[in-house]
Structure formats: C-alpha cells, structure tokens
Write a structure and sequence with these properties.
The protein is built from 11 helices and 11 strands. With 313 residues, the chain is of the alpha/beta class. The strands form 2 sheets. An 8-stranded parallel β-barrel has the order 3-4-5-6-7-8-9-10, surrounded by 4 helices. The structure holds phosphoenolpyruvate and manganese (II) ion.
C-alpha cells in the first residue's frame, strides 16, 4: 500500500504520528523546528580548503546557519569522481586505467576534507552537516560534523539505521524520489523505535513522467511538506530544492514555495563558481543568487510566522 491509513498511524507509525508541536532538533548551537527557518548551504563537494572557507564566509553573511559539504559522494557513475582521486587533475583520466581509491585511502581523503569543513564552520560560526555512506565511518566523521545526512540512496540501509540510532548527533534523512511518505515515515519509526528522536526529514523531489526541462531530474513535492506536518506534526521537515530540481533557475522559486508550504529549513548547493563545480554544476547557486534567495525567503518566512537568522552586518 502506498498511502498512509488510519491503521498505519495507530499500529505501524505510533511514535512518528504522535500529536504535538514541532520538536526542536539541535545541530551544534543551531536549532531546527520551533518557529525557526534554518538554512543549510554550501558546496555539493568539498573541493579544497580555500573553496570551503570562501563559500562558508558567503553563506554565513547571507544568513545560513549550517554549512553543508559532501566528502563521501554517492554519485550515479563511478568515473570522474574527484573525491575518489587524490587530486583534481587525475580525475580527468578516470577511464585511462586508473583505479579507484581503496577504502582506507577514501577515508583518509574524506578526513582531510572534513577538517576543511570543520575549520570553515568554526571560523564563521556555522554548524556542519555532511552525508554519511558507511556505518564504519561514524567515528571518523563525528569530530568534524554536527549532523549526519542520510542520503536518499541510504534511507533503507539498516546497517546505517542501526549504527546512527546509537549516536547522539542529529540526522537529516532524505526521501528517495520513488518512495512514499508511508515509507519515509516507516524509516523514521525505525529510528524512533531504537530511541532516536533528533532527526529532520527532507523532501528532495519525486520521480514523475516529465519534469519540464531535459536536465531537471525530479519535481519537488511541495504537497509532501504540509502532508508530513499533518501525519507527523512533531517532526521538523526541510526541503532540498537544489537536488530535486537540478536546475539553477528553479532553485529559488521552489525554495520560496517550500517555505510558504511550511518547511522548517532548506538545503541549498552554493558555489563560488557554480558552473565549474565538480559536482552538480547545473544547479549550484552563486553568491548573488543565494543572497537574493535568502532575502526573498526571509520575506516569505515572516508571512508564515517563522524567524530567520539575520544576516551578519
Ligand atoms: C547531496 O545533498 O549532496 C546529494 C548528493 O543529494 P542527493 O543525494 O539528494 O542527490
Ligand atoms: Mn549537490
């Protein structure tokens, strides 16, 4: 069954469907839920120390509270992943007989990049979120991140669910583009049944027969936001207009729509040189676009009675 029945709410999803006000999820010193609109922004992929520092500075100035950045990228194809290469130049020759990094090397490379994220976060007063792919990387990542992102590809990974339930850090759980709210709330119930309550759910688009543009991957399911609030009123819900639309011109309009629909936060890819981004160059926002997004989002947030952190003066 694809939709949520009353019986589900009582028998299968009793914890996530309980009544109440939106709970507070603390991410380092930042709070999600409870009347705040929390914006997470940063590069899709951590490319270099200077890149992360520059982007962290810009997103902080514009009013973001959490720095995002990938160090383990679950890309669609194995080739050309710069994170699986010791340096950028060698990424170009992925098909020339190079081998991918071993797990040990991958972890070492990731740790170097995590340190850049943490340094940038500390310098500009931003909490840090990054995607986790491997349960055995929790210890490696923990000193550097304030929140673990569970990507849409991992939402059913029981190994991760089990291991992350035992951590204290909050989680950002994305809905797979082909999965129902029933499945997403089922995953949330798995966490809650294990005693894990500090997480937020993220709408990142659904698969539909057409997306209006050839490069646009999915359609942001705006309706999912109020629906999640109805079924699971205590759980904060954020939206990812970057990875759902996959198209720069759609990111800001969908961010505004998500906030108007009640989202408690946004996840946005931002890059100093968006077209040159190693990953997701089609949808990353440049600094000017992100500033405009923040200012428009702040106006919408007021209408729906949410506070947004004021940009630094
Ligand atoms: C990301 O947020 O870095 C990402 C890769 O997103 P998604 O898994 O939703 O495509
Ligand atoms: Mn991205």
């Amino acid at each position: 069954m694809k939709d949520i029945s009353l019986e589900d709410m009582e028998k299968n999803l009793p914890r996530v469907c309980r009544k109440g006000r939106t709970r507070n999820v603390n991410v380092g010193p930042v709070s999600i839920g409870a009347g705040e609109l929390t914006v997470m922004a940063g590069p899709c992929t951590v490319e270099s120390r200077s890149q992360v520092l520059e982007i962290a500075h810009a997103v902080k100035e514009a009013g973001a509270k959490i720095l995002r950045g990938g160090v383990f990228k679950p890309l669609t194809f194995p080739y050309g992943d710069p994170l699986a290469r010791p340096d950028r130049d060698s990424a170009e020759s992925a098909l020339d007989g190079e081998v991918l990094l071993s797990r040990e090397e991958l972890f070492r490379t990731a740790e170097r990049r995590l340190a850049y994220l943490r340094e940038a976060g500390q310098r500009y007063g931003l909490a840090v979120v990054s995607e986790i792919l491997y349960a055995d990387s929790i210890d490696l990542m923990s000193p550097y991140v304030d929140m673990f992102q569970v990507g849409y590809r991992s939402m059913f990974n029981m190994d991760l669910i089990q291991a992350l339930s035992e951590t204290e850090k909050p989680l950002l759980i994305k809905r797979h583009y082909g999965e129902s709210l029933r499945s997403l709330l089922g995953v949330a119930e798995h966490f809650e049944a294990r005693g894990k309550e500090n997480y937020v759910l993220c709408e990142r688009g659904i698969s539909v027969p057409h997306t209006h543009y050839p490069e646009s991957r999915a359609v942001l399911d705006i309706q999912a936001i109020p629906a999640l609030k109805e079924f699971a009123p205590t759980i904060p819900v954020i939206a990812d207009p970057s990875h759902s639309t996959f198209r720069r011109t759609l990111v800001t309009p969908m961010a505004l729509a998500a906030v108007a629909a009640g989202a408690d936060g946004l996840l946005i890819d931002v890059h100093s040189d968006p077209r040159a981004a190693w990953v997701d160059p089609l949808q990353a926002l440049g600094f000017d676009d992100f500033e405009r997004l923040m200012s428009d989002v702040t106006a919408i947030a007021q209408i729906v009675r949410k506070r947004v952190g004021l940009p630094c003066s």
